[in-house]
Amino acid sequence: MAFVSPQLATLEQSLRESLQKEAADSQKRQRAVELQRETWEQNRQVLTVPEELSTSGKEGGDKKQQTEEDASILTTHAREAAIEKRKLQVKEKVQFQLNRVSNEARRLDELRRELDSLEDPTRREVSDIRKKIETVDRELKPLKQLCERKEKELKEAVLAHNDKTKLKTELVSRLMEIVTTSERVRMQKLEELNNHLEQMEKMSGRAL
């Protein structure tokens, strides 16, 4: 039994219902035309009178009315013929779609059977590789925990190193500041002592 997807089955059912509805509508139209033609024939029989009793004016009116009715019937027949022609065209299209849907359903069924019978030639190799992957995953778990622990220790060591480096930089800066201040004070004292000695020498020279 061919496998048909729900979408294709629905489309096929819809197309068949459209064909049935179109056939029913066509029968109704044909019946309406037949009734109109029968009514027209009955009216002609009622309107027909013996030739010796008719007048010339009445003959002209009857002929005009008959001509109009004939034209109306011809127009109706022409329209019905056009409708029938169009119906045949639509019917051919619908039948084409039905055939296409049936062909697609058969093709899908063939593909489904091919998929069901398809075997993977690398199934065993794939299974072995998957087992190896699972083994590696189990081995990776403790290694990951070790890496996380080492990363944490490294991060703490880096932070401690940075703190000590910062402290060293601050201490060096403070040392340089103290040394510079000390040098400036000592130089200032030396200059003051030197000036004092020079003044003493000048005073000693004058005394001599």
Automatic annotation (TrEMBL):
Keywords, comma-separated and alphabetical: Coiled coil, Cytoplasm, Golgi apparatus
Family: Belongs to the GORAB family.
Localization annotation: Cytoplasm; Golgi apparatus
Cellular component GO terms held in the UniProt record: Golgi apparatus
Domain of life per record: Eukaryota
Protein name: RAB6-interacting golgin
Bilayer-crossing regions: none
Organism lineage: Eukaryota, Viridiplantae, Streptophyta, Embryophyta, Marchantiophyta
Source organism of the structure: Marchantia polymorpha
